[in-house]
Amino acid sequence: MLQTVGMDSPTSALSATVETLDKFGQWVIGSAAVNYETDEWRFQDETCTWRHNPRAGWTLSNEVVTIPASGNREGWKPEALKLFFPAELPIWGRELDEWLIANAWADGDDVHLTLLYLPDPDLVASAIISRRWRVVTAFITPWQEWILTDIMPVSAASTPIQPAAMEPVPLQEALFEL
């Protein structure tokens, strides 16, 4: 199983609804699915679908065309997909991380974090980590919000995530053919 710095999922594959507040103050609803065993993922919002397969790389598709990624995109993910990979959020004190954990407390299965923005410590953000799913269920800053809802395990026993389709597929139809 792919490790994510101690935050690997208790199941080998998860799916969820992703709600993102964009820079225009509009909510964008998407869907995501991650297979931690095979390092495959899919993220779909209202405009396009991103897919990653370690053998084929990643693709971007809309209703018209599917484009394979060019250049070195090793480890690249859509920002909101990083909720599935908590170690990739900029909050852990690494050299390029912009946030500092100022406070943390547990509430049931959730761990709540208060974050300070290093360039301006008067700016505060928050994150919630689900101990059950080992994902971040909310990352809220003054200029963005990413929220995971409807988290569920996906059977990894069947086939891997399919290549990107030519048009978006609703979450209920695309919860993997795993």
Could you please describe the fold and organization of this structure?
The chain is an all-beta fold. It is built from no helices and eleven strands. It has an eleven-stranded antiparallel β-sheet, with no helix packed on it. A hairpin with a 4-residue loop joins strand 2 (27-35) and strand 3 (40-44). The protein is globular, with a radius of gyration of 16 Å. Mean pLDDT is 80; it is low at 1-7 and 156-178.
SSE blueprint:
Blueprint: E1 13-21, E2 27-35, E3 40-44, E4 49-53, E5 57-61, E6 66-68, E7 99-107, E8 110-117, E9 120-130, E10 135-141, E11 144-153
Antiparallel strand pairs: 1-2, 1-11, 2-3, 3-4, 4-5, 5-6, 7-8, 8-9, 9-10, 10-11
Show unreliable segments. 1-7, 156-178
Provide the helix percentage: under 10%
Helix and strand sequence: EEEEEEEEEEE
Computed structural class = mainly beta
The fraction of residues assigned to DSSP E strands is over 45%
Q: What's the rounded overall pLDDT mean?
A: 80
What is the alpha-carbon Rg in Å? 16 Å
Strands ordered across the widest β-sheet: 6-5-4-3-2-1-11-10-9-8-7
| Contiguous helical run count | 0
Count of beta strands: 11
The biggest sheet, with number of strands, parallel, antiparallel or mixed sense and barrel status, is:
11 strands, antiparallel
Shape: globular
Descriptors for this entry?
single chain; 178 residues; mainly beta; 11-stranded antiparallel β-sheet; 11 strands; globular; disordered N terminus; disordered C terminus
